[in-house]
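Narrative of activities, Objective 1.

The group set out to show that a structural description can be obtained from nothing but a protein's sequence at a throughput compatible with the screening campaign. Below is one input-output pair from the validation batch, recorded exactly as produced.
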Amino acid sequence: MATRTANNTATKKNKTANYFKGLKSEIKKVSWPTRKELVKHTLVVIAACIFMALLIWILDTGFHGLFSLILGN
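Output recorded for this entry:
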């Protein structure tokens, strides 16, 4: 009985060690962006968010005005 528990614990440790070895190997394969690329992509995301926020605000204001005319409020 004790042998099974010891083997089970050893197997779990091996699986954990193999997981982290694989993780380390995969992280080495990642192509990380340069600082310049990171700043450029961040600015694109911020600009897209601002554009979408303005678009939604314009549509919301337009629909509010349209519904106000229809309902007479």
